Amino acid sequence: MIAALVSEYRKFFTTRMWWILMICMMAYFLVISLAMAWVFAYAVSGDDGAVSQYRPMIYGLGASMGYVFPALVGAVAVTGEYRHRTIVPTYLAEPRRWVVMTAKALAAIPMGFVIAVAGTVSCLVGGAVGLHLGGADPGLWASQTWKAAGLSILALTMWSVIGVGLGMLVISQVGVIITVLAFTQLVEPLARVGLSAFPSTSGIAKFFPGAASDAVSGGTSIYSQLSVNGSMMQASSLSVGQGVLVLAAYGVVFALLGYVARIRRDVA
Q1: 209, part of any domain
Q2: Total domains present in the chain
Q3: Judging by beta carbons within 10 Å of its beta carbon (0-12, 13-18, 19+), is residue 16 exposed, middle or buried?
């Protein structure tokens, strides 16, 4: 297992994809957090209570809007090997496929942590600048700010492991990128808003992976601030612990399905 882990880290650091995605994520978080913070600060100027309510949402934007980036890093760690056929010598060096896939999942955790920290720092910088420009107190040293940042890092790190599971399930690199982008940026947001509009289905929406990510971040996402039919959305009503369990369950289920699909299949 140690040799497999060392091999996976070498693969991470000898490719450009992870740091290119990280730079794109940082730029995205910086711009969107700055813009959103300025809009909210301008809209509620002078209302310190409203600013303190929106502040954790802005600093925790990564967990609610940017989890696609660590998910793609984890997925590409698997699909890149199938695309470039390096999976063949990998399995020749370590024939036990469960060891290879476990090593990929374990290696994704510290890599996901690094990416999560970088993205969260971008949210802190952009959000603080936006709030300042809008005439509001950034509150960078407030306890709720660091709590939101810490929980956002936890959620984003978990998404890198989910990405590994998705990569095992959908070994096509183009296919997994399209699937992740389509689901996280279009299908799930629309489904969450639609299901949360009705009391009978609002309980389903909270178990979506994005909703669980919001729960891990403390439930202070932009979705929780939306009003549907006069009532707040219930998509983030899970507790932090429940959100962690739901995200972990998605990662385990995707990994097991991917492992079962690949265990006997020829890769040549």
Answers
A1: yes
A2: 1
A3: exposed
Residue 126's domain comprises: 2-262
The owner of tokens 């969450």 is 192
| Phi, psi at 232, each rounded to 5° | -70, 145
Residue 79, CA distances (Å) to 84, 162, 163, 244 in order: 9, 14, 10, 25
How many CB atoms within 10 Å of residue 252?
A: 14
Give me the pLDDT at residue 158, please: 93
Distances (CA, A) of 261 to 77, 131, 159, 175: 17, 49, 21, 16
Separation of alpha carbons 159 and 63, rounded Å:
9
CA angle 148, 152, 154 (to 5 degrees): 120
Taking the whole predicted model, whether its pTM rises above 0.90 is answered as: no
Q: Over the stretch 152-173, which tens digit does the pLDDT of each residue have? A: 999 999 999 999 989 888 888 8
Positive or negative, the Cα torsion across 201, 207, 210, 216? positive
